[in-house]
Amino acid sequence: MFFKIRTHTCGELRENNIRENVVLNGWVDTRRDLGGLIFIDLRDRYGITQVVFEPGFDKEAHENAAVLRNEFVISIEGKVRKRPEGTENTVLNTGQIDVMVNKLIILNEAKTPPFPVKDEIDTSEDVRLKYRYIDLRRPAVQRNLLMRHRMYQLVRNYFDANNFIEVETPVLMKSTPEGARDYLVPSRLHKGKFYALPQSPQQYKQLLMVSGLDRYFQIVKCFRDEDLRADRQPEFTQIDIEMSFIDQENIFEIVEGLMKLLYKDISNRDLQLPLQRLTFDEALEKFGSDKPDLRFDLEMVTLNHVFEHTSFKVFQDHVKNKGIITGMLAPGCGEYTRNQLDILTDFVKKLGAGGLIWMRVKDNELEAPIAKFLTDEEKDHLVEAVKAKPGDLIFILTGSRLQALSIMGSLRLEMARRLNLIVPDAEPKLLWITDFPLFEWDEQTKRYYAMHHPFTSPNLEDIEFMETDPGRVRALAYDLVLNGTEIGGGSIRIHNADLQSKMFKSLGISGEEAEYKFGFLMNAFKFGAPPHGGFAFGFDRMAMIFAGVSSIREVIAFPKTASAISLMDDAPSTVSDEQLKELHIKIR
Amino acid sequence: MFFKIRTHTCGELRENNIRENVVLNGWVDTRRDLGGLIFIDLRDRYGITQVVFEPGFDKEAHENAAVLRNEFVISIEGKVRKRPEGTENTVLNTGQIDVMVNKLIILNEAKTPPFPVKDEIDTSEDVRLKYRYIDLRRPAVQRNLLMRHRMYQLVRNYFDANNFIEVETPVLMKSTPEGARDYLVPSRLHKGKFYALPQSPQQYKQLLMVSGLDRYFQIVKCFRDEDLRADRQPEFTQIDIEMSFIDQENIFEIVEGLMKLLYKDISNRDLQLPLQRLTFDEALEKFGSDKPDLRFDLEMVTLNHVFEHTSFKVFQDHVKNKGIITGMLAPGCGEYTRNQLDILTDFVKKLGAGGLIWMRVKDNELEAPIAKFLTDEEKDHLVEAVKAKPGDLIFILTGSRLQALSIMGSLRLEMARRLNLIVPDAEPKLLWITDFPLFEWDEQTKRYYAMHHPFTSPNLEDIEFMETDPGRVRALAYDLVLNGTEIGGGSIRIHNADLQSKMFKSLGISGEEAEYKFGFLMNAFKFGAPPHGGFAFGFDRMAMIFAGVSSIREVIAFPKTASAISLMDDAPSTVSDEQLKELHIKIR
Fold first, then answer.
1. Partner-chain residue, chosen from B6, B132, B192, that has the shortest CB–CB distance to A587
2. Is B128 left (phi over 0), alpha (psi -120 to 50) or beta?
3. pLDDT tens digit sequence for A225-265
4. Which residues contact B297 (CB under 8 A, 6 or more apart)?
5. ipTM score of the complex?
6. In this structure, are A250 and A305 located in the same domain?
7. Cis-peptide into B531, omega within 30 deg
8. d(Cα A448, Cα A445) in Å, to the nearest integer?
9. Which of A382, A412, A407 is nearest to A315 (CA)?
10. Contact B173 A211 (CB under 8 A)
11. Structural domain boundaries enclosing B70
C-alpha cells in the first residue's frame, strides 16, 4: 500500500505550523461525529493531534472517514489551522491547532480491542498480558518503557564516563555443581551435555578483573528457575559492575554517583550524599530488617540493659541466655482497644512469636498485664529507653535475637501501615547496609554457610575469628536499600589464595571439593589476581520504584507471569519429538 | 591484605608529576636487574610505568623486590623522578619519568603464565582460549574489547539521539514450529514444556511496532544451534532496529548515518554518503555474489547479447535455454601458462562448472582453444564488451544463470587474491544490495520458499506477478555489505492482512498452517499494524572488521570454539541426574 511518509509526528504541530500542508500517520484514538463533521484524535508515541473531516473542505475524505473506528491505522494529508475560539485543548501540546483533512488513506483496519487504549482501565492483568501489544499502546505503559530507556542510557553513559568498560559475558555457560535453579540448555553437538544460563555473570566479571580490565560494567539478563513467587521473573536484568584495586569506599562512591544522577534526571530530586549507612547489626536492632524502610521512624530499642537485673522470669531468661528483649514505641496508640491489641498479638504469633507484650503509657504509670512484675526503676528506665510519653503504647518482644528482631521489624511495618506513616510522595530513603555477617549458621545441617558466596572477603580485622568464632566475622559485603527494598548488593572479593583456603576451611569445603566446584576460577586466581570488588543492581526493581508502580511487570515490555508463563505466546510450550531427538533427550 | 589505593594509573604520570609521592597498583610486566638496581615495568589497563628499586633509595623495598616475577600483582609507593638523560622511552606515554620505590606490597603472586603477555605470540588459539583470562591481558586483545566498548556507546547514543527506544525483548521465548536450530530450555515448573532462545527478536520487534513504539533498537544476544562452522558462535550479538511509518529510504538513511559515525569515530575515515547501491541482479551479473567485494574491479560481463546468433553450439544452447554466458577480464594475465590455466580450470570445476573457457588477447587476435568456433565479428564484440587490451586474459563460463555467475564470482575473488588486488589498508567498500527476490525456488521440493521470512513485503509494483510468475517478484529486502562480507540486512514487512494472505498462498501455506505457525503475531496484526520495516547488524562481524582482525573470536571476551565449546570452563558439561529429574527429562 503506497502512502506518504509523515511530515510531522502527532505530538509536533504548534501554532507556528498553521497553514502548512502536513502528512500525519497514526492510530485513531477516538472519533467524534459532530454536526456532519468527523473529529479524529490521531495518536502516535509522540502525542495526539486532532484531525477534522469536513464535507465542505474535502467531500471525498469526509466520505472515506465514515468507516474509521478506534485503532485503525491511517495516513492523512491536510492543512493545519488554528482551532476555532473556545475549542482549544489545553491538555494537549497540540491543543491550539487541528488539521483539516483533504486526503485519507487507511493503512490498516483494526478489530475492536479487548480493552480500551486508555490509562484508567479495569482489566485483569492476565488479559493485559495476553494482548500485551495493545496494553503497550496505553500511555502509562509507554511512559514506563520510555523511562526505562532513559535509565539504560544514563547508566551506560555514567559508567562510560567513569572509565568502566562494557563487556558482554556468555549466556551459554557452564552449569555449576551448586547450580540449583539453573536453567539448562541441552547441547545438540555434544550428546548428554548441557549449558546453563547465568544466574549472574559473577565468575566472568571476576575473571575480567584477573584480566586487568580494571573496571567492568554490563546491563545484563540473568536467569533463575525459582518456584512461583509474585513479582519475580525467570529472566531479570542486572546492572553489573566490578572494579580492581579498590576498597568498599570506592564502590560506594561510584554507586552513589549513579543514584544521584538517576534521581536528578528521572525524578528531579537532589539526592544528598554520602548516603546514610547502617551496619547489619544496627539495622536489625533498630528496624528489625536488613532492608529497613526509613521513610518513617518507629525505631526499635534493645532493652536487655534495662532488665539486666530483673526478677521477671521471662525477661531474666532472655537476658541470661543470649536472647533479646526488643521494644518499640507506637506513639499515640495508648488508647488501642483490647481487640486491636489481640489482632496485633495474632499478627506476631503467626510470625512465630510466643506472644506480644504491650504497655499503655499513662501519666504516672504503665498499664499492662506484666506491669506488676516490674520494679518502678525498671519502668522508669523503660520509658526513658523508648522515649515514651503519656498516651503512647509500648510493644515488647522477647526471644532468640534474629527471630525476635525480625518479628518486631514486621510489626514495625504493620504499624506504619496502620498509622499511615508513608505519604505517597515521601522523600525516598536510600541507605547502605554494611558489615553483613560472613557466615550464616544453619541449624539443620549444623554448619556455617557463606552468607553471600564463598569468594566474599571477610573484614580483615576479623580474620582471627574465622576459626575460633566464625559467627562474629563481618564480611566486606553491602546492600543498597531503597524504601525498604534491596535494590542492589555486592562485596569485596577474596583475591588471596591463603585467605581463600582459610575461607573454604571455615565452610568445611575440602581442597578437592573447592577444585571441583570452583576450579577454573581458582586456577585463574593463581596467575595474579588483583584486589577487587563489585556490585549488582536489580534493574527491574529500580525501574519499578522510579516509575512509581507496584509491580516489575509494569516496567518490562514482555513479562512472564508468576508461574513463568508468557500469556501472549504461550511459552513454554511442547516441542516436537524430532527436536528432542536431535538434542538427545526425552521427557521422563 | 591492606594496601593503599592508587593515586594514579600506570598510564598517567608525566613530567609535571616529578617529585610527587605516588601509589601505583598493577602487574609486573617485565623485570630487569641492572647493576644492583631492579627495574619493573608496572602494567595496568591504562599503560605501563617504570618503577625502580634502588638499595640506596630504599634498602627494604629493594630487598623485598627480589622475589618479584612476571605477572605478580603489586602496590608500590614512591617518588616520581625524571628519567636519567638517555634512558627516556619515547614509545611509552610515561616514558619521560620513572618512580623510585620506597614501599612495596605484594598483593598477589603469580605462576608463570602459559604464554607471555605480549602481542606477538606464537601460541595456539586453543591454549589462548583455555587461559582466556591471561590472553585478555595482552594489549591487542584489550584494544579490541575497548574498541567494542566504544562501539556499544556510539551505537546506543546514536539511536537514542534519533528517537529510538531501547527495549529488552525476552530471552526465554516460544519455540517456533520452524525452530530448527533453536536452543531449547526445559521448564521445571511445566513438565514436558520448553522455552526457546531467540534466533532473533524479529517477532517481538514487530509487536513493538504494533504497540506504537515507533522506533525500537536493542543490542541483543541471539542464539543459533548450528553445525560446526569456523567463525560462527552459538551466541552472537545483533544491533536490532525497527521503524514504523517509513519506507526503505528512511531505513537506509538511519543505517548510513550510523556507519558514517562509526567510521569517523573508530577509524577516523569520512564515509561518503549516500552509499552505492546495487540490485541483487546487478551484483550477481557484475560480481557473481550478493555480497560483492568492491575493493577491486574485475567486473564480470554478461555476454549473451554478443553470442545471440552464434553458431558455436555451447554458447547457442545457453543463449536459447535461459542459460548465461558470463565473461571476466583478467588484465595483464595474457601470459598465464597452460599450467596456471589448468589450475584455474580445476578451481571452477570443483565448484561445479563444466569447464573454464579462456582466451589470450593478442595484438590482432584471440588465442584460445575455442577461437576457431567464433566469427571475427563475435570476437570483436567480445573484446569490446569486456574492454580487453592486448596482453589481457578473458575468462568465460556458461551454465544456468545463478550457478555460472556464482562460480565466476568465486573465480573473481581467486584472481583478486592471485593479483594481490586488496591492499592492506584499502578504502573500505560499503554498499547496499537491494531488490532481492521475494521467493527462492527449491528444486528438491519443487516449490517456492520465502528468501527472507514470510513477512517480508514484496515490491508493491510486482504484486501482480505473485501468482503468475513468483520468481520475478522483488522483495523490499536489502543487505549492507562491507568488503565482501554481509554485515547486516533487513526488509520492509507486510502489514496488511490481504497481502499477507496472498504471500502465504504463494508459499503454499494454508490458513490453518499460518495460524498454527504464526498465530499470535498474525493475531496482533488484526488490531491495527502500522507499515514498518527494520534492520539488523551483525555486531561481532562489524567489530571484527573495524578492529582489522580476521576472526570474530578476537572481539568477543569469552568466545566458544567452532564446535560450541568453551575451553576455559569446559561448557557444555554433564549435569547431575537430580537436575535432569527436576526438569522432567532424561538423556536418550
1. B192
2. alpha
3. 988 777 889 999 999 999 999 999 999 999 999 999 999 99
4. B421
5. 0.94
6. no
7. no
8. 9
9. A382
10. no
11. 15-108
